[in-house]
Design goal:
By secondary structure, this protein is α/β, with parallel strands linked by helices. It is built from seven helices and six strands. Helix content is 35%, strand content 13%. α6 links the parallel β4 and β5. α1 (24-36) crosses α2.
């Protein structure tokens, strides 16, 4: 990823949760296999709206999504490799800023605290917007300059604003796009002005 010669200030950086910090789609796949006997190849999820590209009935997918949204801790959603270390280090500079389209703030804040170890001593600021379209106003309100996101459609919503979207590479966003991108948390680490 290239951000020019300038590194990104920790106070100007925010993150989406699902697909960037939380390995949510792998939890979905595991649940589909173990509880519903549905096999899904992670690399086959080539669209954020995964029901367009994988073979799963709507009732089953809705049940799994509901479990993930309401009980991410109980679903055993793991953090993406490297996220805990980078976010913990960022927390020493002040609250880590997280913005999610999830509506249930309590469930995801519990996951962040228990799974990432953030909260209390390692401060976070979490905004649960309830919709992807509501992310940009929150980012602007808090002076965020860079937002790491896995959903290309959200990056396009942000494009042209004072916020620079950074795509966290996943199978569903490998289409051609004009945005900065990172392949993993090591690359995120390297772009930060520590």
């Amino acid at each position: 990823m290239k951000t020019g010669t300038n590194k990104i200030s920790p106070r100007e950086l925010a993150f989406d949760i699902d697909g960037v910090i939380a390995d949510t789609f792998r939890a979905f796949i595991k649940t589909a296999r173990e509880r519903y006997n549905v096999e899904i190849d992670y690399e086959a999820i080539t669209d954020y709206d995964f029901r367009k590209v994988i073979d799963i009935n709507e009732e089953t997918s809705n049940e799994i999504i509901e479990m993930i949204l309401e009980d991410p801790v109980g679903m055993g959603i793991n953090p993406i490799i490297g996220a805990v270390e980078v976010l913990t280090r960022l927390s020493y500079f002040g609250p880590v800023f997280l913005v999610t389209a999830r509506a249930n703030r309590d469930a995801i804040i519990e996951w962040v605290e228990k799974t990432l170890g953030l909260g209390d001593g390692n401060p976070i600021h979490l905004e649960a917007t309830g919709a992807h379209e509501n992310k940009l106003p929150i980012l602007l309100k808090h002076g965020i300059k860079y937002f790491v996101e896995d959903r290309l459609e959200t990056c396009y919503l942000i494009q042209g604003s004072p916020v620079t979207p950074i795509v966290f590479e996943q199978p569903w966003n490998r289409k051609e796009h004009p945005f900065l991108s990172v392949g993993d948390w090591d690359e995120i680490h390297d772009m930060i002005e520590w």
